[in-house]
Design goal:
It is a single chain. By secondary structure, this protein is α/β, with parallel strands linked by helices. The protein contains 7 helices and 7 strands. It has a domain of 119 residues: Glutaredoxin (3-Layer(aba) Sandwich).
């Protein structure tokens, strides 16, 4: 009986380690799958400011783009985090001196709700309300929102993956890449950083 009781915690520990390893392996595979992959954009994406004024695509001639895709599953306001995106855009504009543009593609179930959220949060950066979910259909993004934000180079190839709003290590990694500043580097591999938040 005593042997059986002692083996239960050991079994649980081994099972937890196995789950952790499989989680890390899954994230590692995801990172490897997307690194260097070219993101394909719809031919006619329409960007608006707060759902009113149509504007041109904000990518311009930037060296890097941060693309974030948000679907309509779960709490839209929780996923968007627009005030935090405003802070991040300002930080990147300051640190990267215009080298980075931001592409926001939202697949709304309720376009009016998204209009309201952008107005409520004073979010004046252009966004694409991708009602037909064309961007996702062209690229088949992972279902986990952690893997629906990408740092792209000027050829739209994925340089890094992860949401800098939800993970400060990912933000530091993105900053290091776009500025070439070794002082902003995270000491953890990106697979570990992403595994910790999935």
């Amino acid at each position: 009986m005593k042997k059986t009781l002692l083996s239960i915690p050991l079994f649980i520990s081994l099972a937890l380690c196995a789950c952790a390893d499989s989680g890390r392996e899954r994230v590692s595979r995801m990172v490897k799958e997307w690194e260097g992959k070219e993101i394909v954009f719809p031919e006619h994406s329409v960007f608006t400011v707060q759902g009113k004024d149509t504007v041109s695509c904000p990518s311009g001639s930037s060296s890097y783009r941060i693309l974030t895709y948000v679907d309509s599953v779960d709490c839209t306001s929780c996923k968007l985090q627009l005030p935090r995106w405003k802070e991040l855009i300002a930080e990147f504009d300051s640190a990267a001196d215009g080298k980075v543009s931001f592409l926001f593609y939202f697949h709304p179930k309720d376009k009016n709700e998204l209009r309201y959220l952008t107005r409520r949060d004073g979010f004046t950066y252009p966004v694409c309300f991708d009602e037909s979910d064309e961007l996702n259909r062209l690229n088949i993004f992972p279902g986990n929102m952690t893997f629906q934000t990408f740092l792209l180079d000027s050829d739209n190839r994925v340089v890094a993956i992860g949401n800098p709003i939800h993970n400060s290590d990912v933000k530091r990694l993105y900053l290091r890449i776009v500025t070439g500043d070794a002082s902003s580097v995270t000491d953890k591999p990106i697979e570990t950083v992403l595994w910790m938040v999935t």
